[in-house]
Amino acid sequence: MKNIFNPIYRQDYLEGYSKGLDPYSKAKDDSNNTAFNDGFNSGRIDYESVNGSIVDGIPKKIINEKILEEFLMAGLLGINIDTEGYTHFQISVLVKWYQSGIEKYDPKENNYLLDILEENGIELNHS
How far, in Å, CA of 51 to CA of 91, rounded? Predict the structure, then answer.
């Protein structure tokens, strides 16, 4: 990443990053746009770090930041998780996030949070 503070570079970098996160997109091989290429490579590395290498195939369910945070919250709240439809690689990533939440689990806080959610009409299925 050369100059992320340059607005033109940043815009091209972020465009490339978002394309890199999309497993169906391909890098522009003929592009001389360094910012786009740097962003694409960074996005692809981030995608593959949680979903596995694209050469191994694209999984049916794709993990993103939102899903990782949901698994962390499930661990924090002590809620069971459903890993159906994820690959073995993805499950290993999700379990790490879930376990990270479990390590911070406090039953007193869990009950307090569940009470607040119930007061606001939000019910969580947990068993």
Answer: 9
Core vs surface per residue 95-117: b (16+ CB within 10 A) or e: eebbeebeeeeeeeeeeeebeee
Return all residues near 103 (Cβ < 8 A) that are at least 6 apart: 75
pLDDT tens track for 56-104: 999 999 999 999 999 998 888 778 889 999 999 999 999 999 999 888 7
